[in-house]
Design a protein that fits this description.
- The protein has 141 residues and is α/β, with parallel strands linked by helices.
- 38% of the residues lie in helices and 26% in strands.
- It is built from five helices and six strands, in the order E-H-H-E-E-E-H-E-H-E-H.
- The chain has a six-stranded mixed beta sheet with strand order 1-2-3-4-5-6, sandwiched between helices.
Length: 141
């Protein structure tokens, strides 16, 4: 498995992956923020691929010099194989390179099921925030 930054040619496959991996409501909520993040800084969207197939995506953003894991989606056939953890670690490295103040995981109903994955990687209660709706990629500001 290889992790790399998003490329424009990934758009259709990533969109399909998210539609297949996320609930309908989550997919709908994610697409607008995904488009904003791509227009602002696509280097914070990371892709996991293997043999040319996209296995997962993580959408990160920086807001007020804090790094946020906005959304993570892994193809259902490739879950529990380390794809999500690898994406989380890679985006963390990107945040560290950017010298963000803090790295946070916004908590909403859509990403609560993946919080144990973050905890297994050392994230603690101070890493989680409920200020989800205030993120610029969500609010459009």
């Amino acid at each position: 498995m290889h992790v790399r930054p998003f490329q424009l040619s990934d758009y259709a496959e990533v969109t399909q992956l998210m539609e297949n991996s996320l609930s309908e409501a989550c997919f709908h909520d994610t697409m607008e923020a995904f488009a904003r993040q791509l227009s602002w800084d696509s280097s914070l969207v990371m892709i996991a691929e293997e043999d040319g197939a996209i296995l997962g995506v993580v959408i990160g953003t920086i807001d007020n010099n804090d790094g946020y894991y906005y959304r993570i989606a892994v193809d259902p056939f490739h879950r529990r194989k380390g794809v999500g953890k690898t994406l989380i670690r890679t985006l963390r490295e990107r945040f560290v390179e950017r010298k963000v103040n803090r790295i946070l995981v916004p908590v909403d109903t859509h990403n609560e099921p993946v919080l144990p994955v973050f905890e297994s990687l050392g994230f603690d209660m101070n890493s989680f925030t409920t200020a989800f709706k205030k993120l610029s990629i969500v609010a459009g500001t």
